Amino acid sequence: MKRSALRRKTRIARISEKQRLIREKSLDPAREAAFRRDGRRCRRCRSTSHLEAHHLRSRARGGAHHESNLVTLCRTCHRGVTYHEVDDWRDWTA
């Protein structure tokens, strides 16, 4: 690999990491508040492992990083909800 291509790849990786850290930092207080509110359990299956914050209204559609827009889901449930593989979301978002 050419030296300039390697520098560019390294610079892009650094920028991506910096953007990820900024995004996580801005979400962190809201995520923690949602986790506390939900008792650190998945709202769908009640699991306590691999928890993630799910936006009820997506960021792309104007949803905010706010506790009222977040629910706690385990990784498995989060993927199912994100890819529309589950249809019981009304039961656990109420």
Strand residues, percent: 5-15%
Biggest sheet, open or closed, and with what strands and sense?
2 strands, antiparallel
Which class do the helix and strand fractions yield?
mainly alpha
Q: How is the quaternary structure best described?
A: single chain
What do the pLDDT scores average to? 80
- Biggest sheet strand line-up: 1-2
Task: Give the helix level as a range of percent.
Answer: 40-55%
Q: Rounded to an integer, what's the Rg over CA atoms? A: 17 Å
- The succession of helices and strands, N to C, reads HEEHH
If helices are DSSP runs of H or I spanning 4 or more residues, what is the number of helices? 3
Low-confidence stretches: none
Question: Could you name the key traits of this structure?
Answer:
single chain; 94 residues; mainly alpha; 3 helices; 51% helix; 11% strand
Describe it:
This protein has 94 residues and is mostly helical. It has one domain (28-93). It contains three helices and two strands, in the order αββαα. It has helices spanning 3-37, 75-82, 89-93, and strands spanning 51-55, 70-74. The model has no long low-confidence stretch (mean pLDDT 80).
Secondary-structure map with pairings?
Layout: H1 3-37, E1 51-55, E2 70-74, H2 75-82, H3 89-93
Antiparallel strand pairs: 1-2
Question: Quick gist of this model?
Answer:
By secondary structure, the chain is mostly helical.
